[in-house]
């Protein structure tokens, strides 16, 4: 097997639905929030391993637009975890020259967190070895609605002809613009649904579901998912 073939078997972009924190904790007799704490710790492990394996982009679904509907106490704990993550873990990513960006409705977060997100994006924008995209307060439908509005405005202002609207125009209007489509979507915890994650972008992604809860999903489990991806025959409509 030559190097080119090897590389083709490594997904360039992995998107992960990090699910099962609550059940992980509940099954251990712990409060759900303890699962979120363990889950947050696991992010570092998986990102480091993905980078080592030659993956170039990892998008992490950390908080959906719908997750705002959870009990206030749980949302508050998650906010504190995100704030800490942005301060400490993201600073380490910056030190390691990782390009970090955010998708989702950041206006719903407290001002200090929004400022930190903007700052991190600005400061890491030129790094290109490894990209981490954090989906926070993200919902694919919301993102698509925002894109439709942008395109409609451009059409109204005659900046874009309706007949010129194509896949590229839509890509450019989404918050994921500039990021290649995910090749592999991993969802932990046994649920087999997308829960409003990257609907447009994963039209042709390989889907991989594992029963393992996110806090327990380790390097070896990521290798198993990557190997499963490598065995898939990606056809893109061809024979
Ligand atoms: C994923 O774990 C983390 C978030 C959605 C913030 P869950 O909190 O959804 O855990 P389960 O699915 O209830 O076990
Ligand atoms: C999806 O998980 C969102 C994240 C993992 C951040 P949920 O646990 O919120 O999804 P549903 O409610 O089971 O579909
Ligand atoms: Mg869940």
Q: How are the secondary structure elements laid out?
A:
Layout: H1 3-8, E1 13-17, H2 21-26, H3 32-52, E2 57-64, H4 72-95, E3 99-103, H5 111-124, E4 131-138, H6 140-156, H7 167-173, E5 184-187, E6 206-209, H8 219-231
Parallel strand pairs: 1-2, 1-5, 2-4, 3-4, 5-6
Helix pairs in contact: 3-4, 4-5, 6-7
This protein binds 3-methylbut-3-enyl trihydrogen diphosphate (2 copies) and magnesium ion.
One 3-methylbut-3-enyl trihydrogen diphosphate is lined by residues 18-23, 63, 67, 78, 189.
How would you characterize the overall build of this protein?
The protein is an alpha/beta fold and 239 residues long. It has 8 helices and 6 strands; from the N terminus they run H-E-H-H-E-H-E-H-E-H-H-E-E-H. It has helices at 3-8, 21-26, 32-52, 72-95, 111-124, 140-156, 167-173, 219-231; strands spanning 13-17, 57-64, 99-103, 131-138, 184-187, 206-209. Strands 3-4-2-1-5-6 form a 6-stranded parallel sheet, with helices on both faces. Strand 3, helix 5 (111-124) and strand 4 (131-138) form a beta-alpha-beta unit. Helix 3 (32-52) packs parallel to helix 4, helix 4 runs parallel beside helix 5 (111-124) and helix 6 (140-156) crosses helix 7 (167-173). Residues 1-6 have low confidence and may be disordered. The structure holds 3-methylbut-3-enyl trihydrogen diphosphate (2 copies) and magnesium ion. One 3-methylbut-3-enyl trihydrogen diphosphate binds at residues 17-19, 61-64, 67, 191, 193, 195.
């Amino acid at each position: 097997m030559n190097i080119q073939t090897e590389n083709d078997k490594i997904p360039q972009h992995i998107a992960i639905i990090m699910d099962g924190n609550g059940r992980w904790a509940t099954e251990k007799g712990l409060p759900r929030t303890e699962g979120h704490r363990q889950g947050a710790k696991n992010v570092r492990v998986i990102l480091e391993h993905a980078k080592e394996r030659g993956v170039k982009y990892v998008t992490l679904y950390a908080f959906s637009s719908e997750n705002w509907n959870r009990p206030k106490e749980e949302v508050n704990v998650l906010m504190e975890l995100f704030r800490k993550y942005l301060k400490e873990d993201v600073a380490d990513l910056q030190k390691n020259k990782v390009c970090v960006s955010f998708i989702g409705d950041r206006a719903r977060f407290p001002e200090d967190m929004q400022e930190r997100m903007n700052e991190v994006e600005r400061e890491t924008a030129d790094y290109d070895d490894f990209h981490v995209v954090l989906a926070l307060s993200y919902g694919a439908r919301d993102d698509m609605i925002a894109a439709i509005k942008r395109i409609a405005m451009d059409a109204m202002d005659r900046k874009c002809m309706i007949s010129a609207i194509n896949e590229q125009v839509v890509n450019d209007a989404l918050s994921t613009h500039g990021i290649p489509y995910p090749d592999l979507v991993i969802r932990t915890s046994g649920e087999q649904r997308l829960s409003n994650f990257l609907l447009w972008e994963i039209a042709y992604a390989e889907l991989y579901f594992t029963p393992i809860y996110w806090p327990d999903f380790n390097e070896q489990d990521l290798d198993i998912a990557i190997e499963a991806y490598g065995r898939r025959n990606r056809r893109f409509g061809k024979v």
